[in-house]
């Protein structure tokens, strides 16, 4: 190893370990469902984004197996070189129909979807107005585009309006975009899309909504854009296929000419092999299930309400989430980590989230109830919260 690399790694890894910021990743020994097995112990899993429980659904598993038998396990090469599987086309048609748009394009992950889509349209002559709490993949996608990034205060529509006005009046930018998460994953709040659309109309902004945590959850499962009836107003509807859909991948849904452009100009589409046939078949099955009935979505919301109520009654600060995401705000970073460790020891797998992922002093346990949790599991989790909360003096 080059000496310069060795000293860089030693110095920085050490520094993280000393500060207690080196994240040791837990090894999961089985399926990622409402419970998971870690160190031979079954824990109630409140840490996954598997909102509808589809990651372990038998119909999805069977669809993947059938596709593997017919197509094999890999897509072979990038789609523009080796041809595109009919499975990918069928999925994209289904996604467009599901999202109420003319067309859709799929990517290998939600993360690289943002890297792909933003930089395919925006460049150094442009400006992007970005919510201060947008996901890392949006931030990186904006950086990659080389556009001027103008962060606005979280969901602060006055700040967005002022900054959009100033940017427009400066005459410095050819195109301007406003970009936001649909649902913010740390607090569970929903973006103010109707106001964002109104500001976008006023200042001629391209609109971009990443619905990673909204798809399969809000708008009877069709996402936050659908919830507000704004399918015709939002230029880019981004979604991930790894959370509620339960598999892996990401997509953009929008007008046909936008999708045509992304197919010829977005680099992860042009230079990286597509999602595997088994995954695509499982994803397509998941969308079919979501289209057919809102039963899982209803169950998810019911479980979210039940967990929130249980924790609130005990006296925990659960913030102001508008979705099933249930933060339990502890505050102090060390106490948050200790709280999470104790929950895990007692049988609830819920991780502490601290600075820099959330602002200093707002350390929290982020609970993600899913449609697959039973009442017994949630009751048991709340009981463990009570025990740990009293023990650590949080309630
Ligand atoms: N966008 C947002 C808003 C997200 O929360 C996430 C996942 N944390 C992603 C994109 C990335 O999605 P994926 O895991 O599919 O790469």
Automatic annotation (TrEMBL):
Keyword Ligase: yes
One family name in Pfam for this protein: Aminotran_1_2
UniProt KW keywords: Ligase, Pyridoxal phosphate, Transferase
PANTHER family cross-referenced by the UniProt entry: CLASS II AMINOTRANSFERASE/8-AMINO-7-OXONONANOATE SYNTHASE (PTHR13693), LD36009P (PTHR13693:SF3)
Name recorded for this polypeptide: 2-amino-3-ketobutyrate CoA ligase
Record SUPFAM superfamilies: PLP-dependent transferases
Annotated family: Belongs to the class-II pyridoxal-phosphate-dependent aminotransferase family.
Residue ranges constituting the Aminotransferase class I/classII large domain according to the UniProt record: 41-382
Entry superkingdom: Bacteria
Co-factor requirement: pyridoxal 5'-phosphate
UniProt xrefs under CDD domains: KBL_like
Assembly and oligomerization: Homodimer.
Species of provenance: Ureibacillus massiliensis 4400831 = CIP 108448 = CCUG 49529
GO MF term list: ligase activity; pyridoxal phosphate binding; transferase activity
Stored InterPro entries: Aminotrans_II_pyridoxalP_BS (IPR001917), Aminotransferase_I/II_large (IPR004839), AON_synthase_class-II (IPR050087), AONS_Archaea/Firmicutes (IPR010962), PyrdxlP-dep_Trfase (IPR015424), PyrdxlP-dep_Trfase_major (IPR015421), PyrdxlP-dep_Trfase_small (IPR015422)
